[in-house]
């Protein structure tokens, strides 16, 4: 096994198989350390993401004002020019490189207008190369104008249109974009083995063209054999990561944040030997337009029908619904436009689905599908209603308990923007030859401790579990130096869960994991038996 680290429940015991039932408070640990994984080095994938924002304008595009006489005087000095090249170097930061060409000894002012109302002016004496950096307050597409000036006025100008690397979120009323059973967004037929379904995102359902990423709830249903699906931008390479794992006859949903291709499409690849149906519901999208940034939170429980937290006590009846306050709870401010949740169904009396929505009439989309007696969780990103509430409807004909943990929110004041990256695998315990012990945790450092990185977009998959249990992901209170020096303190997992599993079942879930103040993230196996754990990354949020 990977670790002898174990947590010992004090007071009310933790119940395996329960969606993080009460009793986690007061847990304490042994003197054993958790399991370390290699650093998640974001530098290479981030550099690639930033490089995609490189733009330039050659010196030949310098515009000169017309001479008063209509032409340049004979023997006069050549008009100066400036070439521009810029890269994005962070979520909101850019580096501008200028090459001024002029006759030797020519003194010029170089005025840079960044397109957000700010400007700087520096000097150039003859041919000069300059580099200037700037950080925008919000994501966007900005026109950067450079003017060469002297005592007579403007001698020449050049400009570029520069998008930031960061992307901000706009919530969208839950809407179905794809259903291969009904012919919505694709022909009414199953996706074949190793086949691909293509979803129109940009320009569909009042989503603007040019969106860069999308929040989708992807559901697999009616699969004939084992497999998994992979969601990625149309036109890109098929990744080796996974988003939804399934077995024959199973209905499995999972939240996905996927990059959108330049033509506005997202591909879903069926990596399985049998055919299946696919459903995809949109709940929001990301773009270069200033909208809402993301703020990650330590997971906090805001609804638990077993205790009457956030709603009445007792199971939500069949086809029943309830609303719960979100603004002002769990760290979510009144300015938040959408909230990131982990929603769990516990002890349902029959199979069905759950719909989470901002209020009003319930949409036809689903966020979580479940079988009778199954405890299962799924990530949800949902707009918050104008009254500061969200609503949850039980689509089954019989009652079920519902548990909701808040993990973050989107608001205009939030600083962090999404950086899209190619899907990649952080770690896979199957490659280590031994699974993660029960009551143990894996800890890993993110981006070398870069404090600009505030959260990761990951997909956590549990496979080969030897019993029932649940996964909790949270920031570690210890610094990396504390672990290296052996003076770390025992981290206490939060009273929340990210995914639940039963014996030998493979279960995935999207986890938007806060990296906390130390940029160290913990993955807790809160079951009593061992399990394998895979973590794939799809992007990250950064403040600058």
Concise overview:
The protein has two helices and 35 strands. The chain is mainly beta and 544 residues long.
Strand order of the largest sheet: 3-29-34-31-32
Molecular shape: elongated
Q: Number of helical segments?
A: 2
Radius of gyration: 26 Å
E-strand count: 35
Which spans of ≥5 residues are poorly predicted at pLDDT below 50?
Answer: 3-32, 68-75
User: How far is the N terminus from the C terminus?
Assistant: 40 Å
Task: State the helical fraction.
Answer: under 10%
Oligomer classification: single chain
Report the major sheet.
Answer: 5 strands, mixed
Strand content: over 45%
The averaged pLDDT comes out at: 90
Helix/strand-derived category reads mainly beta
Note the topology.
Layout: E1 7-8, E2 28-29, E3 35-36, H1 43-51, E4 55-57, E5 81-88, E6 93-101, E7 107-113, E8 119-125, E9 128-135, E10 141-150, E11 153-163, E12 168-179, E13 196-200, E14 213-221, E15 227-233, E16 244-246, E17 252-259, E18 265-272, E19 277-287, E20 293-304, E21 321-325, E22 338-346, E23 352-357, E24 368-370, E25 376-383, E26 389-394, E27 401-411, E28 417-428, E29 440-445, E30 453-463, E31 469-475, H2 480-485, E32 499-501, E33 507-514, E34 520-525, E35 532-542
Task: Supply the key terms.
544 residues, mainly beta, 47% strand
